[in-house]
Amino acid sequence: MTGTSLQHFIDRIRAVWGPLSSALVAECRRHLETLAQAPETEPWLAALHETQPASQTLYRDPVHGFLLLAHSEPAGLYRPPHDHGRGWVIYAVQRGAVEMGTYARHEDGDGRVTLVKRDTTLVRAGQAKLFLPGDIHDTQCVSGSGLSGPGQSGPALLFRFTERDLQQEARHITRYVDRDGIWTTGPA
Question: Which CATH number do you get for residue 153?
């Protein structure tokens, strides 16, 4: 791994790491987009394309706690609206394309929660999208769905950079359910 794009990414993130700020997330996003453009001939990246893991930890920082994961996603895979609790995350697409929607949480006078969709962004290979603490979003892999161009066929490969271990954050994460076409909280 020495001298690889992955090691350069780790070194650069460790060098800029600090409290959440506009400068920090901009640097992390920039470095993650660079990593997403790494040559597919690098052994670590070639192995990801070969094995297509649903989820694989690429790096866990022992001092700062941030993580970098890789996810291979087939066309059509949909992850319903959710947030990341107190954590922030940056998704970068290395291969393929993923639609990422954003939502606002609305609570009516009776305390019923519904989501209002703000927009959808198509994130293509080499691009990244940031979600701050509390941001609500969904993802849908659209690779192989009639898109053309380099990196658009086959399963998508995403990098997910999180500033903390989200498995330990589970009790703070809100996942939403679809009830008759309306996204809301509570059991399905």
Answer: 2.60.120.10
